[in-house]
Amino acid sequence: MHPTLNIAVKAARKAGDIILRYHNQIDLLTIENKATNDFVSEVDKAAEDAIINELKYAFPDHSILGEENGEILGDSRFQWIIDPLDGTTNYLHGFPQYSVSIALYVNNEATHAVVYDPFKEELFTASKGDGAYLNEQRIRVTNTNGFENTLIGTGFPFKVPHHLDAYLGMFKAVHPQVSGIRRAGSAALDLAYLAAGRLDGFWEIELNIWDIAAGALLVKEAGGYIGDFSGRDKFLETGNVVAGNEKVFKALLKTIHPHLTDDLQR
Ligand code: IPD
Ligand code: CA
Ligand code: CA
User: Are 131 and 240 contained in the same domain?
Assistant: First the structure.
């Protein structure tokens, strides 16, 4: 494993330990409401602090963007992007589907990625050009030949409800063509599952950059495709994400397209 990835893994495991330490004592946590349906607890904050400490110790000059702390300025060529707990709503309900997501972008290019599920002890990693791995075993996207017999991941736009009608149009169009659609509640893990061949495709509206920065590299290194709603690479900026193996990626883009509002054409 690349030494830089190794540091990211160490940081993710420290965050995972904090997350697990409290997962049976959720009643004791102080929970704040950042915005409608957007919660944060001291576990999110402590996990992010642990990751930042680890990264700062190894790479004092690098810049870091964390969901809870915002931007820590440094050498802008090296940008870490962190979601210390992706799937907070699940976590706060004891629903065991959440993850730690850490990515390093070098000159705006995804270079190393970790998505870690501490509950299931599943560690998804990738370095650019070196493939994607689950607990050190190589993973690949599926090779289904279109929508038939596929399982598709998605996220509901519960933080951006003005997109609900457009989303439901997309859902109605995808639903009859596939075997199933799952809303599991951690976008980072959804992309990791796609990389591991557990899902064949994925789409979601207006995610944040820290939800997808690591998962995007996992998908690409597993042989998959990821893009915005036009199939181009502006997904980190818009947060609008479509991903899949090659055929499902194309099928999703085509199916979603008629339901895009002006807002979502970006
Ligand atoms: C959320 C999860 C969820 C997605 C939300 C995200 P958070 O992240 O990734 O799957 O649907 O839009 O905000 O808030 O739990 O870190
Ligand atoms: Ca998140
Ligand atoms: Ca989060």
Answer: no
